[in-house]
Amino acid sequence: MRGYHKSFGERIFDGIVYLFAALVMIVTLYPLIYTVSMSISDPVAASRGEVFFLPKGIDFGAVKTVLGDKTVLRYYYNTVWYTVVGTVLGVVVTCLGAYPLSRKEFTHRGIFMKLFTFTMFFNGGLIPTYIVITNYLHLYNSRWAIILPSLTAAWYIIVARSFFESLPDEIVESARIDGASEYRIFVQLILPLSKPILAVLALYFAVDYWNSYFPALLYLGKQKLQPLAVYVRSVVIQSALGDLNAAVQTMLNPGSLLTALQIKYAVVTVSIVPMLLIYPFLSRNLEKGLLVGAVKG
């Protein structure tokens, strides 16, 4: 049997697709590579503007200076706390909400799904939410002001429900015949088979909490509770305005070759590297979880 030969038009189309994908990849990766390169380049080369893509003269002085600053470490600790606690609780709550909605014997699941879907398009708004969290829940300057309002999302529940629906019903039915409770079925049967969707949810929540800064600006007046994203935001904004951040200046020792600009690039690098390191460990299950949710959803 002869192999399939693409027509001239199909080859042109494939070439356009590959070219577009390459452009998207370049546009996406260049800022990341440039930021990392600036933070680990030789201070002299960085101050002269000689770094355009790859680092020039490897020097980790800026990164060491940032990691050695107690203020940055405090921000870092807060971000890790919000990310770990928020991710664990978010995955647990999302799965507990999605699993009952995936069971056909749950009589009122249609009503609950409509209520969840409603929240995707309508909400109380910023000011009412702020009043509820600060005046009624009294969570201002509390770590839980960052965790509780973002504990789950309707879209995450829908994706998880779609994955649970893709699992064979025979597994649950046989376990019930053997006398297993719903709790035991969920913990010992469903969750071990749901590693792909758990990886997807964990990555979603981790990225959301790690990069979140706006809720912290609203609900965390104490600097000791603020995450790293708030500090990075202030550094980037003041850099764009041509102002040198006071906190950045305190990192610079007299006579040091490091510049405030390179320190700011190092701050950004330190904030993004953890997510880049976590992704490879979750990517194996990420594609499968997304595909099942997309097909069933």
The portion of residues forming beta strands comes to under 5%
Q: How many domain units?
A: 2
CATH class of the largest domain: Mainly Alpha
Order of helices and strands: HHHHHHHHHHHHHHH
Share of residues in helices: over 70%
Q: So how many helices? A: 15
Shape: globular
- The fold-level CATH name of the largest domain is MetI-like fold
What is the gyration radius calculated from CA atoms? 24 Å
What's the total number of strands?
Answer: 0
Low-confidence stretches: none
The CATH superfamily of the largest domain bears the name MetI-like
Structural class label: mainly alpha
What report would you give on this structure?
The chain has 297 residues and is mostly helical. The chain folds into two domains: 1-59, no CATH class; 60-296, MetI-like fold, CATH 1.10.3720.10. 73% of the residues lie in helices and 0% in strands. The protein has helices at residues 8-40, 43-47, 61-67, 70-102, 109-121, 126-136, 144-147, 154-166, 169-177, 182-190, 195-211, 214-219, 228-240, 246-251, 260-296. Helix 3 (61-67) packs across helix 15 (260-296) and helix 4 packs across helix 13 (228-240). The longest helix is centred in the last third of the chain and has 37 residues, at 260-296. The radius of gyration is 24 Å and the shape is globular. It starts with 7 loop residues before the first helix and ends with a helix. The model has no long low-confidence stretch (mean pLDDT 83).
Please outline the helices and strands.
Elements: H1 8-40, H2 43-47, H3 61-67, H4 70-102, H5 109-121, H6 126-136, H7 144-147, H8 154-166, H9 169-177, H10 182-190, H11 195-211, H12 214-219, H13 228-240, H14 246-251, H15 260-296
